[in-house]
Amino acid sequence: MPAEISKEGNFIKPKTFRRTRIIPGFSISLGITIFFVSVIVIIPLLALLMRPWENGFSGFIDTLFDKRVFAALKISFLCSLLAALVNLFVGVLIAWVLVRYDFPGKRLVDAFIDMPFALPTAVSGIALSAIYAPNGWVGSFFNNFGIKIAYSPIGIFIALVFIGLPFIVRSVQPVLSELEAEVEEAAETLGASPLQTFNHVILPAIMPALLSGFSLAFARGMGEYGSVIFIAGNIPYVSEIAPLLIVVKLEEYDYAGAASVGIGMLIISFAILFVLNLTQQYFAKKGL
Amino acid sequence: MALTINNLSKQFAGFAALNDISFSVKESEFIALLGPSGSGKTTLLRMLAGLDYPDKGSIDFKGQNFLSLPVKERKIGMVFQSYALFRHMTVAKNIAFGLEMRGKNKPKKEEINETINRLLKLVQLEGFEKRYPAQLSGGQRQRVALARALAINPSLLLLDEPFGALDAMVRKELRRWLRHIHDETGLTTIFVTHDQEEALDLADRIVLLEGGKIAQYDTADKIINHPKSEFVFDFVGSGNAADADIKGDVANINGCEFPVVNLTNFSGRQKVKFRNYDALISNEEKGIKAQLTGIFASTGFLRFEAVDNAGHHLEIIISERNFDHSLKVGDHVGILPQKAYLF
Amino acid sequence: MRRKAAKRPEKLTDYTLIIFAFFWMALIIFLPLMSVLFNAFKGGLPKYLETFADPDAMDALKLTLLVTAIVLPLNIIFGIASAWAITRFEFVGKTILLSIIDLPFSLSPVISGLVWVLMFGAQGWFGEFLQAHDIDVIYALPGIVLATLLVTLPFVARELIPLMDDNGTDEEVAAVTLGASGWDVFFRITLPNIKWALLYGVLLCMARAMGEFGAVSVVSGHIRGLTNTLPLHIEVAYNEYNTIGAFGAATILVGLAFVTLAIKTILEWRYADELSAQHRH
Fold first, then answer.
1. Taking CB atoms and an 8 Å limit, are A5 and B52 in contact across chains?
2. Is residue B65 within 8 angstroms of chain A, CB to CB?
3. Sequential DSSP letters for A143-174
4. What is the CA radius of gyration of chain B?
5. ipTM of the complex model
6. What is the pLDDT of residues C104-125, one digit of tens each?
7. Which of A68, B23, C42, C51 fits as disulfide partner to C248, beta carbons 3.0 to 4.6 Å?
8. Predicted local distance difference test score (pLDDT) of residue C122
């Protein structure tokens, strides 16, 4: 059993013996790690956390509830939520198709799922806006019916659907392919229809993975910038996202304001991840 | 004495993993560290290897203070429970690794090859040098791990549950073979096991551990026939308990008299223990009155299950040759212990 | 344990599901990729090739490669050091350290840029000091490097930590008992076991470093020929209605994405056992 020889052996000996760990390199590796983490992550984030308070707590609150900022946070929140919900269904469906069926081009589809991860966001941004603009391939079609996709919240939603898809598929896919065949067969022998089997046997099993994918997609959507700003049109109160407001505030040299918006976004993201954690704990208690 | 261990103690988060362990090992001896899980046997082995350190005590190996030496200077051959073969190296590279690590004192290429070939022959894996660990069976991996440990010409060979991950057939075969290798190389060898049969069968002497203490350190024969405590008696084999009238070295149950190894010098009515093979079954109204609840045939012997008047279960084993064929399930019999222990 | 094997579609529902998956992928993923190519070649091949003659585009490409060349080695060092510390030793605060390493993943890219402005911008913590000593961080290479580092920090570590945890320390401990030194243990035992996972992490890290937009956009100042990386150059060209220039430059990054996905897929196929479990298909 590997665990028996693993970490417990690496300990600091009492001083009466030579102080050594079995595996070398503790100080240097931890030193490098802590150096990087401090300089690249912790200290900069402290700079963020300490900035908004120069106009007092009320200054922070005023910034967040400033009409334009609040509208932007609301748009970001709603569009991300909606996009994550759509991806919840589509993501499970695509994961299901990839795990359960053999068909030509499956490998290719599987590889392309990761395209939104691999494609730089600026490229996704201009590509999506070119298609969904009123004169674009898809946009012109909807334009006939008076529906504007690009330069409206729908555009933001489309971009976030694009960005969020891999999160759900890649969370669900491995769990789905690891499911025990016998459990499903047992449900079938007990008279369950395929849909009943899915709802009562498969769905509960993939639920924790689904939730984690959902919240990752949701949180990513809240912070997404590059793929959104080209298609969004960035009309204040209508299609302006929260991250863009940080850029706007920085251009006005309003550092405290920018930091306040940043912290507002962080609070929402962490609230999402926190709620996820609670639900996952709930499922963990049920042994899923 | 090749190896002397004195007053070794170690606390793990409040409980004593090892508690004042002292024993010594002769040159070329084959020693088993036996005990249930949590008895401290693996911790003890790891301390000998230098992978773990005691809170106090000393380990002296041929005049060297082992505790002042780091792992790599102890020149021990260690066989890990998981074998810990280097998965990306061939069998030959695995075996050569310890020699390659010698820096300036690294042997010449021909010498290394010679060592590889000699060891492959010893572990009966000639022709396997180009294989990777993933291409070997469990028993073969075990043998490569042993060859790798032997390659550095160790002065002490340590094995952690060497047969733990193998199935029963391979286990038995490798057991004899390991003993043979030990006898051939004359290496002082210490191995950890939780399997009493393995320890009794293989080792010159056995360190039987209980809760971090040595329960008994003896030869197999002594441990089987002269257990020093009830724990030792129970750990190395199954037995039965009965109440008997004790007078010195003689016990009496209902007119059946038999010798008792009296470790307490108590007398009067006492609980004694006897092995399942140290008893006879008779039709007489003597000994432990019991009713037979099962008779099971096996190769060479028969196993009887019985219940005494107080409802205690008893198990007796009798050689087929001495079997009284008139016995049937449901019979009322007298069980006559031949030898018992009073702890 | 037996798993349900993938089957050929038989019923109408099977076909409907598969066709829907294809349709969605086409709409959401293939179509945008097509539009990049379509727009880049809208004016024919010669116009497209002019993109590569544009000095601004080439300066942007060079800067992108330079930033990547600085960030990658640092990330490799950090990834290996942190994975070694976390998987080979017990110490207080490990769980917190793990969460901090993961933290950049949940930060908005814009925030990853903003923090550096708050540190080194004109009104930042060290702004006055830097101005007094005439050191440029924001709107200069160091800022771009720092922002990219923050965004990409977890990539290598996240590949190595689960794998090294799975592998355990048995082989390394065995090597030590056979007399191996620290470097020998690392280069002869550990590195060969993690090399494909390391490559995998480096690949993802590289793709992200070359493509990062939000974080870099905040710290760069968009100075042509100086602080424009390739993604920023795309933005500038696009906003100036230089469609062919924008999409032409984008084809470089699309190409990079394809190469990344191809190598990634090959690694997942060929070396599945030597990657961390979540990438084994």
1. no
2. no
3. HTTT---TTSHHHHHHHHHHHHHHHHHHHHHH
4. 25
5. 0.91
6. 988 999 999 999 999 999 888 9
7. C51
8. 86
Enter the DSSP assignment of A260.
H
How many CB atoms neighbour CB C45 within 10 A? 9
Helix A153-178 and helix A67-100, axial crossing angle in degrees, nearest 10: 40
Q: Is the pLDDT of residue A275 over 60?
A: yes
Q: What is the pLDDT of residue B57?
A: 92
Contact A13 B53 (CB under 8 A): yes
- How much of chain C, in percent, has pLDDT values that exceed 70? 98
3-state secondary structure of B279: strand
Contacts of A185 (CB under 8 A, 6+ apart): none
pLDDT at residue number A167: 94
Q: C-alpha distances in angstroms, A141 versus A132, A137, A153?
A: 9, 7, 18
Mean pLDDT across C3-14 = 83
Q: Give which of B131, B55, B126 is closest to B93, Cα–Cα.
A: B131
CB contact under 8 A, C21 and A93: yes
Phi, psi dihedral angles at A235 (to 5 degrees): -90, 120
Spatial distance between the Cα atoms of A46 and A6, rounded to a whole number of angstroms = 36
- Per-residue pLDDT tens over the stretch A102-124: 999 898 999 999 999 999 999 99
Cross-chain Cβ contact A94/C217 below 8 Å: no
Evaluate if residue A6 carries a pLDDT over 50. Answer: no
The residue among A24 and C67 whose pLDDT is bigger is: C67
Cβ pair A120:C212 closer than 8 A: yes
In whole angstroms, what is the distance from residue B212 CA to residue B11 CA?
10
Strand partners, B18: B10
CA B250, CA B269: separation in Å to the nearest integer?
Answer: 12
For C153, the closest of A5, A40, A96 (CB atoms) is A40
Using an 8 Å CB-CB cutoff, list chain B residues near C180: 72, 97, 101
- Region B264-288: mean pLDDT is 88
Which DSSP string corresponds to A57-96?
Answer: HHHHHHHHHSHHHHHHHHHHHHHHHHHHHHHHHHHHHHHH
Which residues of chain B are within 8 Å of residue A16 when distances are taken between CB atoms?
A: 56
Nearest residue of B to residue C194, measured between CA atoms: B88
- Is B308:B290 a contact under the CB 8 Å cutoff? yes
Comparing C-alpha atoms, which of B169, B130, B123 is closest to residue B146?
A: B123
Tell me the pLDDT band of A287, cut-offs 50, 70 and 90: low
Mean pLDDT score, A171-187: 87
Q: Which residues of A touch B84 (CB under 8 A)?
A: 5
Residue C3 · residue A97 · CB < 8 Å: no
pLDDT classification of B190: cutoffs 50, 70, 90: very high
**pLDDT over 70 (residue A14):** no
pTM for the full predicted model = 0.86
Q: List b or e across C236-272, with b for residues whose CB sees 16 or more CB atoms inside 10 angstroms.
A: bbbeeebbbbbbbbbbbbbebbbebbeebbebbeebe
Angle among Cα C6, A85, C32 to the nearest 5 degrees reads 75
* Residue the block writes with tokens 């490229």: A123
